[in-house]
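Hey team,

Filing this mostly as a record. A colleague (T.K.) asked me to run one chain through the structure pipeline before their review meeting, and I want the input and output archived in the tracker in case anyone asks later how it was produced. No errors, nothing strange. Just documentation.

Input sequence:
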Amino acid sequence: EATKPDELAAVQRLVNEKIRGDIDVHWEEQSYDDALAGGAMALFGEKYQAKVRVVGICEPPADDQHHEPRCFSKELCGGTHCHATGEIGTFVIASESSVGSGLRRIEALTGALADAFVLEQQAVVGRLSKRLNAPSAELEERVEALRAELDAERHRVQQLERQAGRAEAGSLVEAAEDVGGVSLVVARVPAANIEAMREITDLLREKLKSAVVVLGAVVNDRPLFLAMVTPDLTGRVHAGNLLREVAAVAGGGGGGRPDMAQAGGKDASKLDAALDTARTTARRLLEAAG
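Output structure:
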């Protein structure tokens, strides 16, 4: 489970509190067993020598020098260290991620790098405040308002697409070709995505009852195809096989079930040629079976 933002904030506050305390950092060599018995942490499951280097960040007792010092951190480490926590300057958490099951890694910046990071974040907030015309304290509220507006616009666009799909389906029904009592619809449609194309085929299935439908559209500058065959005709026309042949004309591929298939191509300029292939092939299959 990812570390929660309030938990990260608590860690950052605690570390900076100890940095401001300017606590002495000391190190000494001990036997491995004595170090562990004294509370030192051996991280990462590393293998250690009989003698180990123990680094401690420990505050001396405030009242009685005979008491044990209170250690904020005490671990086995062979690396370099500052002489006191105050030398660190500032501690800023930059990221948090998973490093294994039940293990999280916090990456942070200190000193001049931490200062630069804070200045960069402040600059980002400043630019956002200017662009959104809102004080920094109100940015979150402003973003949520914009998201709500965007969701409302998306909903409105979806409704308009559905209305356009119903109108398109009505036009396609009127233009359907009769091939031995079967309705054949092959057309280029102004659909924005595959979902809009599916809605049109669903409407055509309801209205035409017995039909073979192949639709094509250019979505994100690439040709997209969708085929639908009503259950009574799947023994004569296999939607997946038909669409595989159609998509090949546009440099693509795909397939699917006997009654429903979709495919994509690479060359949008070949969309109309691919639909011509769909019309010719579907007509041939229907006439041969009839």
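Quick notes for T.K.: The mean pLDDT is 89. Helices lie at 5-20, 32-37, 111-132, 139-175, 194-208, 239-249, 271-289.
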